[in-house]
């Protein structure tokens, strides 16, 4: 599991409005090349939103289908993707503070097939490092966009 956080000089509601706007994520997060929404939520909130995300991963375009499995506005949301014999889960968590909001992201990869377990054993260290860099960049992009939109 990989986890990182960033302090954002904005209230949780302002942070939530940006991180929950998956439709606009490619305009905020530099690593995302394209978002294609596949399914809108059937009820209130964002649970059930499903999309195809294209981003650069280790020098190549990687396309993953992701969906929101759980959420509590404006506290957190969790996503899931299943690809290449693995289950990927992430969580964005907001914690209010005196100077704004702490936004934390955790990411976990669970290899499910024999082939995925072998690949994870051989290259997992490299993937963890790349994921850590990706999370740090995503969080920084979010911080910049949110603070820019909330500054007077």
Describe the structure.
- The chain is of the alpha+beta class and 152 residues long.
- It has a single domain, classed as START domain (Alpha-D-Glucose-1,6-Bisphosphate, Chain A, domain 4, 2-Layer Sandwich).
- Helices cover 30% and strands 45% of the residues.
- It has 2 helices and 7 strands; from the N terminus they run βαββββββα.
- The protein has a 7-stranded antiparallel sheet with strand order 1-7-6-5-4-3-2.
- The radius of gyration is 16 Å and the shape is globular.
- The mean pLDDT is 89.
Order of helices and strands: EHEEEEEEH
Radius of gyration, Cα only, in angstroms?
A: 16 Å
Quaternary class: single chain
User: What is the class in the CATH system?
Assistant: Alpha Beta
Structural class, judged by helices and strands?
Answer: alpha+beta
Q: How many structural domains? A: 1
Number of DSSP strand runs: 7
Sheet with the most strands: spatial strand order = 1-7-6-5-4-3-2
Sheet with most strands: 7 strands, antiparallel
| Shape type | globular
**Helix amount:** 25-40%
CATH topology: Alpha-D-Glucose-1,6-Bisphosphate, Chain A, domain 4
Question: Uncertain segments of ≥5 residues (pLDDT<50)?
Answer: none
Second CATH tier, the architecture: 2-Layer Sandwich
Number of helices: 2
The separation of the N and C termini measures: 37 Å
Taken as a percent bin, the fraction of beta residues is 35-45%
Average pLDDT reading: 89
According to CATH, the homologous superfamily is START domain
């Amino acid at each position: 599991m990989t986890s990182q956080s960033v302090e954002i000089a904005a209230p949780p509601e302002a942070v939530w409005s940006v991180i929950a706007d998956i439709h606009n994520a490619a305009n905020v997060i530099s690593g995302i090349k394209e978002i294609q929404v596949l399914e809108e939520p059937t009820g209130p909130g964002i649970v059930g939103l499903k999309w195809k995300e294209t981003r650069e991963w280790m020098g190549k375009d990687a396309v993953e289908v992701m969906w929101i499995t759980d959420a509590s506005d404006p506290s957190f949301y969790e996503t899931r993707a299943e690809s290449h014999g693995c289950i990927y889960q992430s969580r964005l968590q907001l914690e209010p503070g005196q100077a704004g909001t702490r936004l934390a992201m955790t990411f976990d990869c669970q290899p499910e097939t024999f082939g995925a377990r072998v690949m994870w054993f051989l290259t997992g260290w490299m993937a963890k490092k790349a994921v850590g860099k990706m999370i740090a960049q995503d969080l920084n992009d979010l911080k910049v966009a949110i603070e820019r939109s909330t500054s007077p």
